[in-house]
Amino acid sequence: MKIKKITILIITILALVYGGMTIIKKVNLNNDYKIGQALDSLNGVKVYYNGGVDNVEGRNVTKDNYNLGLKYQCVEFVKRYYYEHYNHKMPDAYGHAKDFFDSKIKDGSLNGNRNLIQYTNPSTSKPETGDLVIFSSSLLNRFGHVAIISKVSENEIEIIQQNPGPFSGSREVFGLKIQEGNYKIESDRILGWLRKK
Questions:
Q1: CA 19 → CA 12, 13, 23, 140, 164, distances in Å?
Q2: CA proximity to 133, closest of 64, 81, 60
């Protein structure tokens, strides 16, 4: 009887924690910004504030019915950037951030779903400004993350991103090193990058 009560208590606590996390990830906890507020831009393409990372403000579709993604998620920004800056439409207009990287594709080969060249992390090719960077899923983010490389130097890259969380910035810097002749962005979550050919 005692084991049954403890089991019920543990299940109840886990359900409350899960429910609380679900709600917190949808709510704007940072009153300094309003959802949909422009925070930054790259080449004239704006980055908008999203509030909680799981918040969704509807779907953004172009005038010619190309799906850019859910406002103001990370995928929506990178697809809008590629559409507006490169006039690029991805053959597969759907999918979560982590789905942009296909682990079956060899380094430097075409990712047909995105019609972009895919590079693995590490890669024989150095990341370039404008490349799309893909992050794997994590314990608190099962969908992964995508961003655009905004600067590249000899030993670091800067990314610009939408929806990194209510208190994180739109820009982030990662180390870049050469490891056994390959370029490695120093983050275990970065799967690789995609480039317009």
A1: 10, 10, 6, 13, 21
A2: 81
> Residues 6 or more apart from 163 whose CB is under 8 A from it?
50, 53, 72, 73, 74, 77
pLDDT at 132: 98
CA gap 161, 77 in Å, rounded: 8
Q: Is 107 exposed, middle or buried (0-12, 13-18, 19+ CB in 10 A)?
A: middle
Predicted confidence band of residue 13 (pLDDT cuts 50, 70, 90): low
Task: Check residue 9 and give its pLDDT.
Answer: 65
Radius of gyration of the chain (CA): 19
End-to-end Cα spacing for the chain: 65
- Cα–Cα dist 163/97, whole Å: 12
Q: For all residues of the chain together, what is the average pLDDT? A: 92
pLDDT (0 to 100) of residue 64: 96
Task: Determine the residue type at 141.
Answer: N
Q: Convert the pLDDT of each residue in 157-183 to its tens digit.
A: 999 999 999 999 999 999 999 999 999
